[in-house]
Amino acid sequence: MMQTIFDQYGWENAIAIPLSQGLINHTYELQTAQGDFILQNINTQVFKDPYTIDHNIKAIGQYFHNNKKDQLFTHLVPNLRGETLIEWEGKHYRAFKKIEGIALDVLTNASQANEAAYQFGKFTASLNEFPIGALKVTIPQFHDLALRYHQFEQALMHGDAKRMETAKEAILFLKSHQSYVKRWLDFTTNKEAHLRVTHHDTKISNVLFKDEEAICVIDLDTTMPGYFISDVGDMCRTYLCPVNEACQDLDQIKILPERWTAIQNGYLKAMGEFLTPFEKDHFAFSGQSIIYMQALRFLTDYLQLDPYYKVDRPSQNLDRTLNQNQLLIEFNQLV
Ligand code: GN1
Ligand code: MG
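# GN1 complex -> structure
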């Protein structure tokens, strides 16, 4: 079946290596006679209209091509018919030229946090003049904390009774932090908070490194109009701790303060001149709200028997929640 897709691109002698990264799409590295590519099968349960992603990546790619030629970017590779999104047996695929670089699973030092934060900041900063209205919304209300809380409440009413019991403590913890939702609304409705080109998935594996230098952000599926909180918050969620969201040993969940400084320095180096004072005042809230949102999302999925995130075992989404809850506790001791 894969062979026919390779034919669409004119790839010969192709070898596909599945990459395990990401909880949503299926990704393959392709070694072919025509070069190395990344081929992805887009999860259309999550991205209901994959053409919105295709549109955004092309619009941004075109903007960089016209205005910032030196910006490394995951340009889409068209098939032989010139299509950058192809439908095959009911599935959607797209390909990228492979950019040489390393995607880290976890950080090993603060300099990587600084580098990555700078790259994501630079991505938004270099698109400061890009007409934000030209971007489509790839997942409606993706980082709307009020909606995420509502979905959590729905899961509490209609979710699996047994799982509700196992998750009792995690549920109480998340309920007791509901005040973040109000702060989120206060932030997003303030005229000093601006919609910008926002990546919305700034985990460390979404930036490529060459040696110790971050060179390029990848995975633009959730790039759409949003608030800086989403990007800085997801950096806090994923850069500050020596272990990632998969770690089940809560004792290992600690915050490294030097990485918090590194995120601020790296991001502000690129974005400092664009953020309003009001936005800058919400730097710590970024971490709180996005860690909290992720915990809500994992737990909601757990209570609904895992329709969203890939799992290998039944308690995985609960374990991910407990990890994020602990991270929130540790983060609050720092800020
Ligand atoms: C999903 O598939 P991946 O790992 O890039 C999710 C993010 C979560 C992340 C948690 C579209 O991203 O929002 O933060 O899992 N993406 C979507 O691991 O829901
Ligand atoms: Mg992603």
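# post-check
The first strand starts at residue 15 and ends at 19.
The two ends are 52 Å apart (CA to CA).
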